Amino acid sequence: MRTCNILSIAGSDPSGGAGIQADLKTFSALGGYGMSVVTALTAQSTVGVTGVQGVPPEFVTRQLDTLLTDAQVDAVKIGMLVDAGVIGAVVKALDAYDPPHVVVDPVMVAKSGDRLLAPEAIAAVRTDLLPRADLVTPNLPEAAELLGENERRDLSSMREQAERLLELGAKRVLLKGGHLSGQSSTDLLVTPDGLTETFSAERIPTRNTHGTGCTLSSAIAALLPQRRSFSEAVRDAKDYLTEALRHADELDAGRGKGPVHH
Ligand code: PLP
């Protein structure tokens, strides 16, 4: 059987824990062949982000056109998009090439508190990108930003929030409950046909959680073409993330909050 080509459209993280670097490691670990279109450079370590340099939108378009006129991709993970110009370039390519299994991780702010998306670009994610997503994977702060409301941190409002996110046009929403407290971390998958499914995993006690969002969305993208259903892909992706968290403390990648172990 041909190995699946999985494309990451995302930003670079030199510390190797998040962004393009995390995505490519995840794709490989899960049996995919990783490809990448870089949207932004960050100067970053486990301590934080000291700079962001977006790639000019025309050059994002050039990367996408050059790659997608040659290779067939089996799934796409979209991460850090930096600004509205880059979002426009990615949207244009999605329309032109119509790749399968588009997973959008609406990256906005790093755990260190540094912004990875210009605030004025959130509207473009909402109106232009979400309607082109087969799955969007916001955490609770990102969901609140997309819905234009204050963040809520309770499991009972998650279903209602996920349904309102669906109304923004994504085919499916995986609303991640990692920011809630508790022994387990529960995510909620909702689809327009009214199906709702919860995915729970043991909460691993580690401070080294850099790159969890990138890893989960990449794992889902890598597994969608290799599993029989969305739920199976999400379940297995969450298991992969739990193992990456379980082994995070074996790494010594810097003095700050370290990455999960791919
Ligand atoms: N750097 C890049 C390039 C990213 O894409 C992301 C998250 O998506 C981060 C940093 C932040 O990762 P975290 O919030 O897990 O620390």
UniProtKB/TrEMBL annotation:
PANTHER family cross-referenced by the UniProt entry: HYDROXYMETHYLPYRIMIDINE_PHOSPHOMETHYLPYRIMIDINE KINASE THI20-RELATED, PHOSPHOMETHYLPYRIMIDINE KINASE
Sequence ranges assigned to domain Pyridoxamine kinase/Phosphomethylpyrimidine kinase in this UniProt record: 13-261
One Pfam entry name: Phos_pyr_kin
Job of this protein: Catalyzes the phosphorylation of hydroxymethylpyrimidine phosphate (HMP-P) to HMP-PP, and of HMP to HMP-P.
Keyword Transferase assigned: yes
Protein name: Bifunctional hydroxymethylpyrimidine kinase/phosphomethylpyrimidine kinase
GO molecular function, one term: hydroxymethylpyrimidine kinase activity
EC number: 2.7.1.49, 2.7.4.7
Alphabetically ordered keywords of this record: Kinase, Thiamine biosynthesis, Transferase
Reactions it catalyzes: 4-amino-5-hydroxymethyl-2-methylpyrimidine + ATP = 4-amino-2-methyl-5-(phosphooxymethyl)pyrimidine + ADP + H(+); 4-amino-2-methyl-5-(phosphooxymethyl)pyrimidine + ATP = 4-amino-2-methyl-5-(diphosphooxymethyl)pyrimidine + ADP
Associated pathway: Cofactor biosynthesis; thiamine diphosphate biosynthesis; 4-amino-2-methyl-5-diphosphomethylpyrimidine from 5-amino-1-(5-phospho-D-ribosyl)imidazole: step 3/3
SUPFAM superfamilies listed in its UniProt record: Ribokinase-like
Native organism: Streptomonospora wellingtoniae
